[in-house]
Amino acid sequence: MPNMSNNRPAEQRFIENAARLLIPWGVPQTAARLYGYLLLCAEPVSLDRITADLEISKSSASVAARLLEAYRLAQRHGERGSKRALYAVSDNYEGMLSEQNRLLDALADLMKNST
Predict the structure, then answer these.
(1) Nearest-angstrom CA–CA distance, 9 and 88
(2) 46: helix, strand or coil
(3) Which end of the chain is more exposed for a tag (fewer CB within 10 A), N or C?
(4) How far apart are CA 21 and CA 95, in angstroms?
(5) C-alpha 34 chain-centroid distance
């Protein structure tokens, strides 16, 4: 993992523990593991690095990263002179909860209006 090779077992435990906390909230396992990984990264990382470090396919990493963006838990960063995207954790740790609350409010309104 980026600049973390000396503590790999501890980092893997952290990633898995972060995933265990997010999965009950409806976050798919790959996205939950990616979020834990991004929390450990000091700077934005590429999909290529993510796939190598988490040992997942590039398509799985891409889908997970886009989901974390939708939950506002991750941010995509551009790289000058390249189309390659880099990902990092968002400063908005409440983004997922805010988005879920918004969806629940919309569902409640729909239910009220259908009766």
Answers:
(1) 21
(2) strand
(3) C
(4) 16
(5) 5
Question: What Å distances lie between residue 3 and 11, 21, 43, 81, CA to CA?
Answer: 11, 25, 10, 25
Contacts of 56 (CB under 8 A, 6+ apart): 30, 33, 50, 64
Task: Give the pLDDT band of residue 82 (cuts 50, 70, 90).
Answer: confident
Quick one: which of 103, 112, 91 has its CA closest to 25? 103
Helix or strand (DSSP H, E) at 16 = helix 8-22
Identity of the residue numbered 73: L
Full-prediction pTM beyond 0.85?
Answer: no
Tokens of 92: 């908005």
Question: pLDDT tens across 52-68, in order?
Answer: 999 999 999 999 999 99
- Span 1-25, pLDDT tens digits: 555 555 589 999 999 999 999 999 8
Q: Would you state the structure tokens that stand for residue 10, as one six-digit string?
A: 């501890």
Q: What residue has token string 């954790």?
A: 89
Q: Are 43 and 2 in contact (CB under 8 A)?
A: yes
